[in-house]
C-alpha cells in the first residue's frame, strides 16, 4: 500500500515510513492510505460471521502488503489481541460495543497494541533500542505503556503531571517495571508535552539516541481501530433477524469523540464494506466538530474540562483526515452530530441505567444520549425543519444525514461505542446511580502494585540529564 500526505497529494511513502515518521515532517500533514480496498463480499456475508481476529487479519492485510509477510501479520494480530470487542444488546434496537476488555480497560488498547508490535517488527535488526517518549494527561500513557511493556528492542518513558491525574490513572501509569518508566513531572500536562517536544527537536540528543513518539495520529493506531467496526456490524447484522426482526435494517454507529481518531477508523471500515449506514459524532462541551458540521466553518478552540475527560479536545487532530477523505456535503450526509454538557452526561448515565439496567461510563453516556435523542424524536424534529440553529446550545447539529428516514421508518438499529470501563470513572458513576460499578480484576490488581514513578522537575535541562543517564 502506498500512503500519501493530507497536505501534499503527490507524496508517496511506504507503510514503514508512515509508521516510523508518525506524521510528515515536511508539511505537518497526516498520512493516509491512497485507497481503502473493499473486503471480499463472500467474507462479509458469512454466517456465522468471522471471528474478531479473522476480521483483523483480512482488514490489515492490504495496508501492510509487501512489508509484513502474511504469517508475521498473523502473529502480530494473535499477540496484540488476546481479548476482543464484545457486542452487548441493551434494548431491542441498541447494542453496546464494549471496547474495554483490553489490559487498560479503554479502547486505546486496540490501536496501541497493534502499533507497538508493528514498530517492534520494523525495528528488528537494529542494534540500538528505539526510545518512545509520551506525554499524557491520563488514558493514552497507560495504553501505550501497557502495549509496549516487554516488547523487545523498545523502551518507553511516560511523562505525566504530578497530582493532576486520578489516583487510579496514576497507578495504571506508574507501576510498570522493565522497559516502561514513568516520570511524574512537577508541572502541568503542557509542561510534559513541552519537554517531549523539546527532546524531539534537540539535535544533540537525537544524534545519540533513536527517539520516537506513540502519538494518536500514527496511522498504525488508526487502522486497527477499524477492525471492531467491521466485526461488530457483522455480528449485529446477523443478530437482527433474531432480536428485532427488522427487515433490511440500517446500522447506525454512535461514537463518543475527542480527537476523532475513533470515528475516522469507523469511516475506514465503512469504505471497506462494513454494513454501516451512517454515524453519529457525539462530543462533550468541546464541540468543535459539531459546529463545523452545522456552520461549515472549522474553528479550533482551547479545550474545556468535562466529566468525559478523554474527549476534552478543542482542536481534534483527525479533523484533517476526515476533511481530506470527504467534502463537507458528504460529511453532512454520512453523520449526524451532537454535543452535550456535564449535566447531559450525568443524565445519560442515569437514563441509560434506568431504562436498560446497563452501567455506562461518562464517555459512553455521551454517545448513548445522542442515540437516545435521535431515536426519540430528535431526527423527526430535524426532518420537520425544527432544528436548533444556535450551536452554543447542546443537542443535534442541523444537518439531515442521508440515513435520516431509516429512523423515521423505524428500520434503524444503533451500535453505541463504550470506550472505557465504568470503574475507571467510578466516582462519577457512583455519584449518579448510587451504586459502584464492579471493578475488573486487572484494574484491582494494579491498585496494589508498588508505585515506581520517578520525580522530575519541569525544566528541560533536568529532563535531558535524566534521559542521557538512563536511556
Ligand atoms: C481517547 C478516548 C476517547 C476519544 O477518542 P478519539 O479517537 O480521540 O475521538 C473517548 N473515550 C475514551 C475513554 C478515550 O480514552
What would you note in describing this structure?
The protein is an alpha/beta fold. The chain is 45% helix and 16% strand. It is built from 21 helices and 15 strands. The strands form 3 sheets. It has a 7-stranded mixed β-sheet with strand order 4-5-14-10-11-12-13, with helices on both faces. The protein has a 5-stranded parallel β-sheet with strand order 9-6-7-8-15. Helix 5 packs across helix 6. Bound molecules: pyridoxal-5'-phosphate (PLP). Pyridoxal-5'-phosphate binds next to helix 12.
Low-confidence stretches: none
Question: Total strand count, please?
Answer: 15
Helix content: 40-55%
Taking the alpha carbons of the first and last residues, their distance comes to 34 Å
Question: What is the CA-atom radius of gyration, in angstroms?
Answer: 22 Å
Q: On the 0-100 scale, what is the average pLDDT? A: 95
Given the C-alpha coordinates, what overall shape results? Answer: globular
**Approximately what portion of the residues adopt beta-strand conformation?**
15-25%
Structural class based on helices, strands and sheet pairing: alpha/beta
The description of the largest β-sheet is: 7 strands, mixed
Count, helices: 21
What hetero molecules are in the model? pyridoxal-5'-phosphate
Order of neighbouring strands in the sheet with most strands: 4-5-14-10-11-12-13
Amino acid at each position: 500500500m502506498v500512503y500519501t500526505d493530507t497536505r501534499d497529494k503527490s507524496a508517496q511513502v511506504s507503510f514503514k515510513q508512515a509508521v516510523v515518521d508518525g506524521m510528515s515532517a515536511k508539511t505537518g500533514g497526516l498520512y493516509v492510505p491512497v485507497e481503502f480496498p473493499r473486503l471480499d463480499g463472500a467474507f462479509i456475508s458469512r454466517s456465522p460471521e468471522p471471528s474478531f481476529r479473522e476480521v483483523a487479519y483480512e482488514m490489515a492485510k492490504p495496508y501492510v502488503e509487501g512489508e509484513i509477510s502474511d504469517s508475521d501479520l498473523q502473529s502480530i494480530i494473535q499477540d496484540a489481541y488476546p481479548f476482543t470487542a464484545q457486542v452487548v444488546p441493551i434494548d431491542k434496537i441498541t447494542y453496546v460495543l464494549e471496547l474495554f476488555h483490553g489490559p487498560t480497560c479503554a479502547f486505546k488498547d486496540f490501536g496501541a497494541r497493534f502499533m507497538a508490535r508493528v514498530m517492534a517488527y520494523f525495528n528488528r535488526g537494529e542494534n540500538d533500542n528505539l526510545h518512545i517518549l509520551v506525554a499524557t494527561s491520563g488514558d493514552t500513557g497507560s495504553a501505550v505503556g501497557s502495549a509496549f511493556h516487554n516488547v523487545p528492542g523498545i523502551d518507553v518513558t511516560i511523562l505525566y503531571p504530578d497530582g493532576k491525574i486520578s489516583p487510579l490513572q496514576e497507578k495504571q501509569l506508574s507501576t510498570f517495571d522493565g522497559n516502561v518508566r514513568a516520570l511524574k513531572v512537577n508541572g502541568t500536562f503542557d509542561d510534559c508535552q513541552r519537554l517531549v517536544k523539546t527532546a524531539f527537536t534537540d539535535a544533540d540528543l537525537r544524534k545519540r539516541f533513536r527517539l520516537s513518539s506513540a502519538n494518536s495520529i500514527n496511522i498504525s493506531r488508526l487502522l486497527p481501530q477499524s477492525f471492531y467496526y467491521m466485526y461488530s456490524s457483522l455480528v449485529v447484522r446477523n443478530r437482527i433477524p433474531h432480536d428485532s426482526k427488522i427487515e433490511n435494517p440500517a446500522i447506525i454507529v454512535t461514537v463518543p469523540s475527542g480527537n476523532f481518531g475513533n470515528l475516522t477508523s469507523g469511516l475506514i471500515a465503512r469504505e471497506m464494506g462494513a454494513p454501516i449506514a451512517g454515524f453519529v459524532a457525539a462530543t462533550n462541551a468541546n464541540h468543535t466538530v459539531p459546529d463545523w458540521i452545522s456552520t461549515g466553518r472549522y474553528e479550533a478552540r482551547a479545550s474545556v474540562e468535562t466529566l468525559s475527560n478523554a474527549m476534552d479536545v478543542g482542536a481534534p487532530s483527525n479533523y484533517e483526515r476526515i476533511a481530506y477523505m470527504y467534502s463537507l456535503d458528504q460529511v453532512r450526509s454520512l453523520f449526524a452530530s451532537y454535543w452535550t454538557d456535564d449535566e447531559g452526561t450525568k443524565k445519560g448515565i442515569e437514563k441509560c441505567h434506568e431504562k436498560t439496567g446497563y452501567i455506562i461510563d461518562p464517555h459512553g453516556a455521551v454517545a448513548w444520549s445522542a442515540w437516545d435523542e435521535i431515536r426519540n424524536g430528535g431526527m423527526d424534529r430535524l426532518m420537520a425543519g425544527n432544528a436548533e440553529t444556535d450551536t452554543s446550545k447542546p443537542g443535534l447539529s442541523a444537518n439531515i444525514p442521508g440515513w435520516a428516514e431509516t429512523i423515521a421508518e423505524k428500520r434503524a438499529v444503533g451500535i453505541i461505542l463504550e470506550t472505557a470501563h465504568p470503574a475507571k470513572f467510578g466516582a462519577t458513576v457512583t455519584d449518579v446511580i448510587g451504586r459502584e460499578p464492579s471493578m475488573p480484576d486487572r484494574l484491582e490488581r494494579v491498585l496494589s502494585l508498588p508505585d515506581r514513578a520517578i520525580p522530575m522537575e519541569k525544566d528541560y535541562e533536568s529532563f535531558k540529564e535524566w534521559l542521557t543517564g538512563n536511556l
